[in-house]
Amino acid sequence: MGGKVISTSDYTFAPFNHKTNKIQKKMKKNNSLAMSTRTSSVSWKNLFQIIIKPVEWLQYYYATVLQREINQKQTLLLINAQIAFIMTAFPVDAPLIGRFICCGWFLDAVLKCKRAL
Fold first, then answer.
1. CA-to-CA distance for 98 and 104, rounded, in angstroms?
2. CA separation for the pair 102, 79 (Å, rounded)
3. Calpha distance 113→62 (Å, rounded)
4. pTM of this prediction?
């Protein structure tokens, strides 16, 4: 029987070889690694598209309001300035030191917007 494959209707018997067993395990490991890498890269790509879509909408909105073309960096700077303003103005009962920090953040964001636009 050395080297021949014996087949019945339900089972297939092949001679056991340590070398082929190691190769088969390595192939299974590589295939599962490739599949997990492929699915994770697809999910990261989808996540990036989900995150970037609202930024693109805001970019179009800001371009319409400003009546000029703006890029993504300028859009992100405008979003940063808006968030800084909200964090400065709305938490009325926040500690004074926190409000000063948010005010500094807002001033920095406005100056960055002024330079970029």
1. 10
2. 15
3. 13
4. 0.60
